[in-house]
Amino acid sequence: MDAVFVIPLWADLLAVGIGALQGALFAAQFRDRRLDWLGVAIIGIVVGFGGGLLRDLLLNVPLAPLQSNWYVVVATGAALLGMLLERVFSRLGRLITVLDALTIGLFGAIGTTKALAVGLPEVAAVFVGVLAAVGGSILRDLLLNLPIALMHVGSLYAVAAAAGSGTIAVLLALDVNVLVAGIVGVAITFAVRIASVLFGWSLPEQRSIERLPRLPRPGRPPRGPRP
Fold it and tell me: Using CB atoms within 10 A of its CB, is residue 11 exposed (0-12), middle (13-18) or buried (19+)?
């Protein structure tokens, strides 16, 4: 693996910590589910670990969260902090959305660069980055028995992650410094996700083609207007 692609431990822990904090804040909102401390902590840890575990499974490399004691410590601490301070953080308005956008940006950047480091081509690396970015939110929604946000109109999770991951792949192909490329990729992911919330951007809702245009039959000229 090229040294320029080695993911610093602090960067991976930052993504895990922010993901766990965001997951716990999200889960703590659902008071009707009567989650206890352990339940909220588990949701936070799953969000913090989900993207990284999915990334490493796809790349067939040792699972990063199991290679250091710090992963579990940071994820658990961040999840408990998010649960205990949920009332404080909830007063800050759209903090969960901001943390969510930052989480997918960080996991997308780390997933893309790590995939490129093990020799995947650019398109495949972007695919891994996107899955790493949205993996935690998918597991979160499944555990909470919620509709998966990724698959509904207005989320733009995958679009934001693909924009950031694709930018990183292009910049690295142009020999841009990996730290600069990563920062730019995270910024683009963050900007697209936040803009989609502020301005209501979304992909078109699914629909079927109801009527197909009629083509003229071969050998027959199309009918013109009658005199």
Answer: middle
